[in-house]
Each structure stands twice: as C-alpha cells, then as structure tokens.
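Q: A reviewer asked whether we had any structural model of the full assembly, not just the individual parts. We don't, so I'm hoping you can provide one. Inputs are below.
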Amino acid sequence: MHMTLPVIGTVAAWRARVRGLAAEGIAPGDVVWQVGEDAGTLFADARPSIPPRQLRINRAALHEIETALCHSDPERFNRAHDVLLRLNDGLVWGDRTDPAVRRILEQAKSVRRDIHKMHAFVRFREVGASGPRRAFAAWFEPEHSIVEVGTPFFAKRFGDMDWVIATPLVTARFDGQLRFEETRSTAPPPPDATEELWRTYYASIFNPARVMVKAMQSEMPRKFWKNLPEADLIPGLIRGAETRVRQMQEREAEEAPARRLAVARRMATPDRPMPEAGSLEALRAQAADCARCPLHAPATQTVFGEGPPDAPVVFVGEQPGDQEDLAGRPFIGPAGRVFDEVALEAGLDRGRIYITNAVKHFKFTQRGKRRIHQRPATPEIHACQGWLEAELAMIRPRLIVAMGATALQTLTGSGAGLLQRRGMMEQTKKGVPVLITIHPSYLLRLPDAELARAERVRFCQDLAKAAHFLAA
Amino acid sequence: MAQRTLSEKLALLSDAAKYDASCASSGGEKRDSRDGKGVGSSGGSGICHAYTPDGRCISLLKILMTNFCIFDCVYCVNRVSSKVERARFSVEEVVRLTMEFYRRNYIEGLFLSSGIIRSSDDTMADMVRIAKTLREVEHFRGYIHLKTIPDASQDLIDEAGKYADRLSINIELPTERGLNELAPEKSSRGIRRAMGAVRLKREESREVTHTGKRRARFAPAGQSTQMIVGADGADDRAVLGQSANLYANYGLSRVYYSAFSPIPDASRMLPLVKPPLMREHRLYQADWLLRFYGFDVGEIAGGGMLDLDIDPKTAWALAHREAFPVDINRAPREVLLRVPGFGVRTVDRVLAARRRGAVRYEHLLAMGAILKKARPFITMPGWSPRGLDAVDLRARFAPPPEQLSLF
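A: Here is a predicted structure for the entire assembly that you could use as a starting point for your response.
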C-alpha cells in the first residue's frame, strides 16, 4: 500500500494514517511511505493481515518517536509504525536492547542535535522592512526535516521583528504569527553591514596560543560552514596563529610612560581615613587581617563584635556561623534570630549591648556543597583570646554574659559543667562579673519540643537578669 | 589620539577579553519576547553560536568596556604598565553592538568586563548603566553576565544583580600569596567578601516576603569565578582545594580554570611558555569528579599534581584496585559512579535497567558506557575481568611512550 505524506505537517499526517492502518489491521511491512509528490498507484492496496486495534501510547514515547520521524532516514515511518504496534503488545519503552527502539532513540537524538545546531547557526541579515517592525532573513540547510519543530524557538526569541528562515524544502515566516510554506526561492539574502563587525569580533576573540582545530570541527562541522559568514576566516586564522604567538613572545616588555604609571598608581591606592589609634575601630581593622590560627584560610572574613564602645554589658558567643561568615556581622543567622526574639521578650535593650564571639572565624567542615559547623578546639580558642581581651579592655563592661561552653572557657578558664553553672555569676581573672547561660543555638538543637520550651524560658530568665543589670 | 572607529574598538576590546574562559549562558530566569514588546529569550540550555579555531565557543559577546586600567596585575595584558593599545566603548556603543549581534542570532547575550578606570565604583557604575539600558530601554531579554569590579560598593552590586543573570568576580589565583605577589592591588579578602555578599543576596531574593510576594530577582543564573593556572607555583591540590572551598562557601555555579596564555607584552616576571592546556583539561575533569561523583580533593589530587597521561578517575581506580571489580548488578550508585568510563547518565541508566532484569555486558554499550575504560573494573553475568592485578594495566590507558628519534 502506498502512503503519501505532505511536506508540511508530515508527522501529524503520519500519525493520523497510522491510526487508520492499525484500525484496519494493515501490517507495517505492507506499507510504502513517501513524502511530497504522489508517485502514482503502482502498488496494490494491502489486505488486513494482523488483528485490528486501537493504539494507546504514553506521551514520552510518542514525543520521542515523533522527534525521530523528522530524521532523513527513509525507513523511519515503517520502523515507527512497527514499534508503535509492538509497544501496544507489551514492548517496554526505553529498552535499548531492542534494536528498533534503540535506533529511534538514536535518531531522535540526532534530530535534536540538528535542531540545536539550527538554533545556533542560523544567521539573520537585515532586509527592507514593509512596516514599522524591522525585518530579517536567513538561509539555512538542516540535515533533517526540522523547520516546523525548530522555528518556534525563534518566534519566542525574536518576538518584536519580522523574519524569514528559508531552507531547501520548507520556509518559516514570522510577523507575529508563525507560518510555513514550501520554499520558492533558494537564494540567500545579501550580507548586511553588521556582518563585518561580527567577523571582526570572531577574528579578535580567537586565542592563537591555544589552537584546537579538532575541538572546533566536532562542534561546528564543515557542512555548516558555507552559510556562516565568519567561517571563511578560519583557514587564515589557523595559518597565522603560530606567527601571532611568536610575535607576542618576541615583543619585549616595555614600560608604559612614567607619568601615566604614577597617576594610575595613585588612583589605585585611594586615601582611606585611618581609624583612630587605640579605638575599637582600629582593633577591628587589625583583626580583619588576623592569621593567628589556620581558621582564617577557608573562612570569608573575621567577624568582629558589634555594639556601642561603652556598652555596660557584653555578650560573648562561641563563633560565627555560615551566615555570619558571609555577611561579616555577628549573630545574624538562625541562632542570632533566636537571641533577638528572646532578648526582646526579656526586655533587653539591643541597642545598648555589645555582642561578640570567643572565636572570630567560622570553623567548618566541607560536606559537598555544604558547610557543617564545627566546634573550635582549644588552640583556636586560645589564639583568639587576645582579641576578646582587647575588646573587653577597651569597652570595660560592668557585666559579661557567657553564652555556651566555649565563651565560658575563654572567660573563666573552664567550660566544663555548663548546665550546672548556668544562671550563676562567676568572675574573669580580672574580676569582671560573668553571668553564665547557654548558647541560643542549643535551643535550636533540642529535639524535644517540651524541653525546648522550658529551656527557652530559662534562657529568657538569664537574659532578664542582664537586662536588669543594664537598667540599674 | 585619533578617534577610533567602532570596528577598531571592537577588535581591541574583544582581543583583550579573550582570556576570560566563561561562556555559559544557561539557567537562570525563563524569559521570552512572545508579547512582541522586546527581543530575546533565556532560561533554557545555553547555545554556542560559533566556535573559533581555539576550540572555544562563542556564546556571548565577550568584551571589555575599556582596557584602560589603573591596576598592575602581572598576568594581565591590560595592566597599567603594559604598552598595549587602549580603547574605550561608550555605553551606547556596547548597547548597540549587543542588540545588533543578538538580532542576527550571533550571540546569546553580553558578557561585560572592564579594566578599572578612575575608581572601582565609577567603573562599576558605567557597567551597570549598560545593563540597565539594555533591559529598560531596549527591552532586551537575553542573557547578561557582568563581571563585578573588586571593591565596588554594595549598592552597585545590588543594582548589577537586578539586571544581570550572572555575576562573577575572579579569584584570579589559587593562593592568597600568589595574589599578593602578582596582583598587588587586589585582596583575596575583598574578593571573598564580595562573593559572600552575592550568595546572601541571592538567598534573600529567593525567600518569599512576609506578605507572600516574591522579591526582586538577583543574579538568577548564579555567580562564577575564574582561576589562572600556571602563573604561580600552586599545585593541583591547592587549586582544587580552593575550588572545593569556593563551591561550599559561596554556592558558585562554576569555577573556570584558565591555563596561563602567553599574552602580548607579557611581563618578564612570568614564564613565557605554552599554556598548560592538558593540565587545564585534567583540572576540569577533577572539578566534575568533586561536584558530581562524590570524590574528595585528597582522593584525586593527594599527590599534589594530577596525572597528565590519564584522567583522574582512571588514575584513582588504578591506585585503588582493591575496590574493584564492581558488580554492575549489585553495587550502589556511589560505587558505580567511581567506575572509569561511567558517567552520571550511564549510572542512572544502569540503575533503571536493573529493575527490569540483570544487566549484561552487551547492554552497557547501549547505555553509553565507555567499555574500553570500564572493562577491567567491572563484573556481571557473562563477564569477569582479567588483568586487574596486571602491572601493565596503567600502560593500557596511558598514551604510548614517545619514541626518541636517532640524532
């Protein structure tokens, strides 16, 4: 049996015909498919030879089969017909061990590549416009019949201009509406002025020090070259590459004019006001370059304390976390938010306290793309102790609040037994009173909701003590 | 100085931009111009519109706004002490080139970088003006990648992120010491701080506000960076360690490696040799292993340098033969991912096929496995590998030794 399919709308027509053939019970082997002109009726009508049926097929399989039908292989219609029937009889879609299925998958891939290359290698040239919209035209030679599936991309991309993409068989026209017609003229549009700029760009962006012709050709095969305005530059660029590299190497370095250098160097080092010596700001600037322990290397920055330089109460936490490390400010992450909430409930005036950490760099281990917080070890706490002591010496608070074991350790010399000591007052070596409480991140880690609520109340009570102190 | 033509400027300022490796134009926000009120689309996979004979693709119009620069980075062709010819585009010229190239389907969008003129803020402000004009005057919906200028103010970065799909800032060299020596005006602290700020801003833009509204977009295609390889003494372990740290710290989409190219007028402080292209290639392979295959830096670059003759995954397998052969029908995903010649896609296909029945040797080829590489490391019904203990196993993967010719 002879089946003729139209040049435009080939796949949809095939689908309708196959539905009919399956309903009649015609076997795939008894059909000869053809696209375009009717070759006449040399073939007799086929007789039903298989059980008639209604075809059902899942969407993913159909999409793949229809993509493969754009391939130039003349056998594609029979193969797809056969696979469609077998899929109805229980063949599993995607089974690459079936030669026909595998062939379809390969051809679909090849069609997709051809579409991709069309999206890449169509080159528009501006032509005279008949209306207010600018008009462009292109000539392109695809390997497969992809104009209908390949051009909606251009309609999405070039929505505000009229364009035509002509190929040897089918032409796509867009003027706000996408239409297809059989190609009448096979003459490419004439070059426009911008093309010369594009060729200039192409020749200049090429790096002669790293010629890799094979890599280029595998992605931009020669068959596309004749319609690419830049392609005739390629042989010259390859030939001249070695000379260009040699010229680069031979040219001796020569200093630019001294005057220009002097001006530029002055601009490159702008005057920034120095912080007042002996101030908290000077200390902060100094700490920004701290490399007293290895923690500085993987971290983003030193996270210094924040608050008024004459704060009566200083809060000390453990170390900055992920968010603090990125922003460079203490207590802005999840634990910081808990602290803010509870501080508000406890009536603590956030504007009057100074808040800082025992260790000023974020310590973490990398787990793939994530950073997992790690508790600082004694040498790191020790290395950082100087900064905290300097902060305290400058602020001279009347009360220090140690949040968590690390702060407790650095302030009193021992961090052991935090939960027994919390709520109590101790002293630093210099005799400043230290109020002991937990670190707010502890509240986030408690799995038991009831316990977390109770702990939060106790934390609030501790902060209320500090608030009371502040008010006194 | 005589006024240069647009074409002359384009030649100079694209020539000066070719040392930036990034060309990605994929991901980010889905946009199109079906409404007929603008031009451009983005958000799918990127498209490479042309390839130059160096094997690299042209996806974006990659240019410098100017190659005047007040910095003196030794590895850079545009450093202040170099005698290259200088030029500068106006905002309108960059906009016009981008729009005209885009309308002819030459490019996916713009990758704009610049030398630093006057100050970091002045330069960044001009770059932001270009992106803003493209978006708000020309209604350009294609891709924009802006290279952030070190130490530009946070306000300008915020505005850049509003118009650009991707922001990047180059880490330049794998070690802080290298940067201090070769790029005295740049600070690795400043660069890291800028990356941290971009990550925070991106995360913030993805959160929903209290009123349930979506926030303004901010660099929806993420941020990336570039590292120059071969200009300082850092080994591959240092390079990859730096990359792993940057991926984890700042959620980078990509780290690009750029083999140090002999550049015109290169400073005498640097070695003038062929760029180590094979090293660059191995670093990219290793980078993939870190991100998608569950390897650690220590596992693949423990010795300091990667093997130039064989790929890092095969090198790891050869050094860990006790972990093989792997039973194709039993091994979990993370073990299959370590088989040389198996990609992520192959592994997923193997896992899917296992549900339908035993996977046999002849099935693997159809699944995309490179059997020449995988053969000695796998076992399955009808296939047991030989020669896993053979001393010459490495020789089968390495290129043949070069015969010395008689003198």
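A: Points you may want to mention in the reply: Residues 305 and 375 of chain A are 19 Å apart (CA to CA). Chain A has four domains: 2-117, 122-182, 194-249, 280-471.
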